[in-house]
Amino acid sequence: MLNKDFFNLIFKSGIPNSENNAATQVPEWIKLIDHRFQKMSYTKGNVIQTINQIPDSIYYLRKGLVRAYYLNSHDKQITFDLWEDNTIVTDITNYMYRRPSDLRIEVCNNAELIAIHRLELEQIINQYPEAYQLLNAITLYALAHHRDRDKNRYLTASQKLDKFRLEHKNLEHTVSRDWIATFLGISYAWLHELYSEKKKHNNR
């Protein structure tokens, strides 16, 4: 397959077998989806999705960094997510509901993605209803991701920062601290103080 890395990511228990249960045979619907993906390259600042746009594609980020943010009541940018290599980039909730998204998704540095458009995926699902497994798998992938994020509510600000630094080692010196602060749900001043405290601790 051309995009085996994508399918391995979302089908954690293995790529579904074909109807005849031959473990070595890839189902036709997966082959079709695999060949419908389009390779896309973006540079820093390119916008993948604008606010109020109905999501119409599912993206897989092979390499790069992509940020999603929304605007709060004071029109301040609040970082909703930061996607790195080997991740799904999609507002799957609004994709499934076909409703305008409150997220702006933009590329933070050069990025390599593959994408499949809704119409092409729907054509495959109409031909092979079992292909709906793809959307189920992506929804579960997103649910697991945000369930883990939701646990951060019970962490202290210091613990949140430690977890971020552990899970996103390449981002700490790549993105602005304001992005990190809103991503973690703490103030910029508090984040700055935490960095100062940790630096003092490491210098002892």
Task: Give an overview in words.
This protein is α+β, with helices and mostly antiparallel strands and 204 residues long. The protein folds into two domains: 4-152, Jelly Rolls, CATH 2.60.120.10; 155-204. The protein is 41% helix and 21% strand. The protein contains eight helices and eight strands; from the N terminus they run ααββββββαββααααα. The strands form two sheets. The protein has a four-stranded antiparallel sheet with strand order 1-8-3-6. A hairpin with a 5-residue loop joins β4 (66-71) and β5 (77-83). α7 packs across α8. The mean pLDDT is 92.
Quick one: how many beta strands? 8
Number of domains: 2
**How helical, in percent, are the residues?**
40-55%
The helix/strand order is HHEEEEEEHEEHHHHH
Give the CATH superfamily of the largest domain: Jelly Rolls
Give the arrangement of secondary structure elements.
Layout: H1 4-10, H2 28-36, E1 38-42, E2 47-49, E3 57-63, E4 66-71, E5 77-83, E6 87-89, H3 92-97, E7 104-107, E8 111-117, H4 118-127, H5 133-150, H6 157-167, H7 177-184, H8 188-202
Antiparallel strand pairs: 1-8, 2-7, 3-6, 3-8, 4-5, 4-7
Helix pairs in contact: 2-4, 7-8
Keywords:
single chain; 204 residues; alpha+beta; Jelly Rolls; 2 domains; 4-stranded antiparallel β-sheet; 8 strands; elongated
Condensed summary:
This protein is α+β, with helices and mostly antiparallel strands and 204 residues long. It contains eight helices and eight strands, in the order H-H-E-E-E-E-E-E-H-E-E-H-H-H-H-H. Strands 1-8-3-6 form a four-stranded antiparallel beta sheet. A four-stranded antiparallel beta sheet has the order 2-7-4-5.
